[in-house]
């Protein structure tokens, strides 16, 4: 189980690093846009992301 979590974490780092590597200017603009989003909207985005990930895991398994 720990091995699977480590693999998932490593894959997340690879995926998260793609955009800053390919287009750092766009990545920076996206981060600046995130600063303008209010906390409620940010929480809803996080909740949607967690739900989508959970549903995809259930479908895959």
How would you explain this protein's 3D organization?
Helices cover 89% and strands 0% of the residues. The protein has 61 residues and is an all-alpha fold. The protein has a domain of 38 residues. Helix 1 packs across helix 2. It starts with a helix and ends with a helix. The model has no long low-confidence stretch (mean pLDDT 93).
The mean pLDDT is: 93
Provide the low-confidence segments as ranges.
Answer: none
Helices and strands, in N-to-C order? HHH
Distance between the termini: 15 Å
Morphology call: flat
Task: Sketch the major β-sheet.
Answer: none
* Class by SSE composition: mainly alpha
Number-wise, the strands total 0
What's the alpha carbon Rg, rounded to whole Å?
Answer: 15 Å
Q: Approximately how much beta-strand content do the residues carry? A: under 5%
List the helices and strands and how they pair.
Elements (H helix, E strand, L loop, with lengths): L1 H21 L1 H11 L4 H22 L1
Helix pairs in contact: 1-2
Provide a compact summary of the structure.
The protein has 61 residues and is mostly helical. It has 3 helices and no strands. Helix 1 (2-22) packs across helix 2 (24-34).
């Amino acid at each position: 189980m720990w091995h699977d979590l480590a693999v998932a974490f490593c894959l997340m780092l690879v995926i998260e690093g793609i955009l800053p590597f390919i287009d750092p200017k766009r990545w920076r603009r996206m981060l600046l846009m995130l600063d303008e989003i209010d906390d409620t909207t940010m929480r809803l985005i996080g909740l949607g992301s967690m739900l989508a990930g959970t549903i995809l895991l259930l479908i895959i398994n």
